Amino acid sequence: MSLGKAARSLINPVREVLRASAQTLKRTYGAVAEARVVLENELDTIRAAGTWKAERIITSKQGARISVDGSGGAILNFCANNYLGLSSHPEVVQAGLEALRSHGAGLSSVRFICGTQDIHKSLEQKLAQFHEREDCILYASCFDANAGLFEVLLGPDDAVLSDELNHASIIDGIRLCRAQRLRYKHMDLSDLENKLGEAQSSRMRLVVTDGVFSMDGDVAPLQGICDLAERYGAMVFIDECHATGFLGPRGRGTDELLGVMDRVHIVNSTLGKALGGAAGGYTVGPKPLIDLLRQRSRPYLFSNSLPPAVVGCATRALELLLASNEISQSMAAKTMRFRTNMTQAGFTIAGSAHPICPVMLGDARLASLMADDMLKLGVYVIGFSYPVVPKGKARIRVQISAAHSDEDIDRCVDAFIQTGRKHGVVP
């Protein structure tokens, strides 16, 4: 074979490989381009509907007064879940620093391998004590706690009965389990009883509800739920993310507020709101359930342990609550001050006597525009619209904190009145 033929015999296969690679690359780029068009069209739809959620940039620590990029001076913050004002409490911050120094930045491990420190066990014990339950298990978030519970507890022979307006994390967690799923109308005890009747052939029945529904600030009728659960042989689960630390005489939550602590069997809640506001969630309940979650709950088994600084902050926040209920008890008067003054001004405020005070507006674009105008007046609030809330139910969700003064609340109300008049919401 001549040298030319030999060269061609080597080059031709290479050309074929390169041609095939080019075609594959072209198809890949084409798929990406098509996906980009689909995504951009979806984004344009969101913008056109007025439901685009821009992220404002905060340049300070969390608190009643914050600094916001592009806004001069201190801004009053009325939309954080910082119910007790502990996110930047000096003792809470110091405890985080001390844990960082003594126990490091992180564990680089899940709990069962080499990710359990003494401070994790101590916090779990304190949370169980706080809620007056047998045991506790920590998660990276309450979303993870909800994702990890139902799949472990319930099987195909069981039934779960869920309020139709439960938090998205509860809905997603229930989707992961194989139990019969029955959804009852929002806080409708009659419909719940009907569904419990339908589930009587199941091995176990679990009624699932938010203690406080975060978009409306309404409180679940736990006394009635517990009555029905006992009548029909069901367990009761509540998500207490918007209640732990400040509802009830000692801040234990909705079950304490309504006198059913001994009748609610499982509680999920968060460290990321009233209890320091950093991160983390947990489940408290019967010890056999907590032991089983440690063995089988996927978010627990496959997620890194909570960082020591987060554990330190949450532990100190909890210790402050265990020592005194003074902070939590200051919430009621401040909440009523805002609700009363806003109602008198002509606004519609949803929910009951809860620090979540939704100012109902209906129109998504109006909620967004009013929130922007409020920021210009030095008050930070955010408009909520679909899909966070149902269509036609857009609102500005105001959240009262123990860190707010009466003067702060009055200034917020004045800004709402000024903005509301501008947009024709109030006279």
From TrEMBL:
UniProt keyword annotations, A-Z: Acyltransferase, Ligase, Pyridoxal phosphate, Transferase, Transit peptide
EC number: 2.3.1.29
MF annotations from Gene Ontology: glycine C-acetyltransferase activity; ligase activity; pyridoxal phosphate binding
GO CC terms of this entry: mitochondrion
Enzyme class: transferase
Signal peptide start and end residues: none
Annotated Aminotransferase class I/classII large domain residues: 75-416
Requisite cofactors: pyridoxal 5'-phosphate
Reactions catalysed: glycine + acetyl-CoA = (2S)-2-amino-3-oxobutanoate + CoA
GO biological process: L-threonine catabolic process
Family of the protein in this entry: Belongs to the class-II pyridoxal-phosphate-dependent aminotransferase family.
PANTHER family: 2-AMINO-3-KETOBUTYRATE COENZYME A LIGASE, MITOCHONDRIAL, CLASS II AMINOTRANSFERASE/8-AMINO-7-OXONONANOATE SYNTHASE
Protein's name in the database: 2-amino-3-ketobutyrate coenzyme A ligase, mitochondrial
Annotated source species: Betta splendens
Organism classification: Eukaryota, Metazoa, Chordata, Craniata, Vertebrata
